[in-house]
Inverse folding.
């Protein structure tokens, strides 16, 4: 069952998560940025280990979930946890951008990296939907026996 469509969605979530880890995520007009290594505001770099762990955990969990295709219930729970992690990362990034904008009177420069968490969230929801459909098909076959 590894060739199912939810495997493609989980693989796309993994690739988007790896892309999310490379380079700066948010750019501000004063030169400060938010990246995997921390938040740089001018010269100082503030390292936030919780944000780093969450950002590194998203592609890892989505990749591990691909190989749990025989345990659909566990796979659905892990994808629910993955969706929660993505939402927490989005909230952290929103907090940091709001704090940086207020602290140094700058503005956020929009780029394609801002959309990566949204794509990861969409791919995770699609994978969850595909796994639920598989679970329903298996249940219907069990009823026929």
């Amino acid at each position: 069952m590894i060739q199912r469509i939810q495997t493609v969605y989980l693989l796309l979530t993994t690739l988007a998560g790896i892309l999310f880890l490379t380079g700066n995520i948010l750019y501000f007009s004063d030169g400060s940025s938010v990246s995997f290594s921390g938040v740089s505001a001018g010269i100082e770099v503030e390292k936030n280990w919780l944000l780093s762990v969450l950002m590194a955990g998203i592609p890892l969990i989505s990749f591990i979930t691909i190989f749990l295709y025989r345990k659909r219930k566990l796979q659905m729970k892990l994808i629910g946890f993955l969706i929660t992690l993505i939402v927490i990362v989005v909230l952290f990034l929103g907090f940091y951008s709001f704090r940086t904008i207020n602290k140094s009177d700058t503005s956020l420069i929009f780029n394609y990296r801002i959309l990566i968490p949204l794509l990861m969230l969409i791919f995770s929801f699609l994978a969850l939907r595909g796994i639920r459909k598989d679970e329903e098909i298996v249940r219907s076959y069990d009823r026929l026996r």
Q: What stands out?
A: The chain has four helices and five strands. The longest strand covers residues 24-28. The first helix runs from residue 5 to 21.
